[in-house]
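Hi R.,

As promised on Friday, here is the backbone we talked about, encoded as structure tokens. Could you run it through your design pipeline when you get a chance and send me back a sequence?
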């Protein structure tokens, strides 16, 4: 692929802008609630939060399901929270998931995507419980790559108040993490939402972010045609088409639910 330098960032400007963004929202609340997974996106977001407000005003929630979450992820998340000075809680969501299973008579553990998305939505509910309890806002950890291709759970990890790194592609988040001093083991860790056992993002997507991100940049930011993207990046046109279909098929995730608009006569009283 021909993409060297295409997605380079000025990290000091990026940090300054995101810190200002976070401080604007911090001023309207008692602080932040953030879900820490031990992955690069949540860690980079946490480091930015720590630069924005008093770390004592940040509540970090670590929400593993031991069936699918490696202990190393939990250990990394705890270490990040401690390093940054956050108050943190570890909430084992497997107990909640089993409660759903016992309450739904035809619950199907083999329905990988449905159960995985339920895990994500359970985590969202816990984040908002603590946010409501403390008067804080939920800081999302999604990046631009995930948002554009719809690689997030609707009303799960997509259910947040603000998205500090939502204008940075995954590869750019890793660049920013290196600038911020995020541990290398986290920077180089394969991305995963941990929605099922051995879940890896790039394996599920069938493409690496080193391929996805430049294509997204040309398609979305530069408004290039499919043929031009393929030519400029030297990638098969089928790959560009696949990524374009991801954008289109996930559009509903990025929109507010449609409302059935009624005509004026629907509100007129009958004689």
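Update: got your reply. Pasting your designed sequence below so it's all in one thread:
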């Amino acid at each position: 692929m021909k993409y060297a330098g295409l997605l380079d960032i000025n990290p000091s400007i990026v940090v300054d802008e995101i810190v200002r963004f976070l401080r604007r929202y911090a001023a309207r609340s008692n602080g932040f609630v953030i879900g820490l997974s031990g992955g690069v996106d949540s860690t980079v977001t946490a480091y930015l939060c720590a630069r924005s407000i008093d770390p004592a005003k940040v509540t970090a929630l670590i929400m593993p399901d031991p069936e699918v979450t490696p202990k190393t992820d939990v250990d990394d998340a705890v270490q990040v929270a401690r390093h940054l000075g956050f108050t943190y809680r570890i909430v084992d969501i497997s107990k909640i998931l089993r409660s759903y299973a016992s309450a739904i008579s035809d619950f199907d553990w083999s329905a990988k995507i449905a159960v995985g998305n339920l895990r994500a939505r359970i985590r969202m509910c816990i984040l908002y419980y603590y946010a409501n309890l403390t008067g804080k806002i939920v800081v999302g950890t999604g990046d631009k790559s995930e948002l554009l291709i719809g690689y997030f759970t609707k009303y799960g990890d997509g259910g947040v108040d603000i998205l500090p790194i939502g204008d940075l592609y995954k590869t750019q988040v890793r660049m920013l993490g290196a600038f911020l001093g995020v541990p290398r083991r986290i920077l180089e860790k394969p991305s995963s939402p941990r929605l099922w056992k051995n879940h890896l993002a790039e394996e599920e997507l069938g493409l690496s972010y080193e391929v996805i991100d430049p294509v997204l940049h040309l398609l979305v930011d530069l408004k290039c045609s499919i043929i031009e993207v393929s030519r400029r990046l030297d990638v098969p046109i089928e790959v560009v088409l696949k990524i374009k279909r991801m954008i289109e098929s996930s559009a509903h995730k990025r929109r507010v639910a449609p409302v059935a608009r009624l005509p004026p006569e629907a509100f007129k009283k009958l004689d």
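One thing I noticed while checking it: The beta strands are 32-35, 58-62, 87-90, 137-139.

Thanks again,
M.
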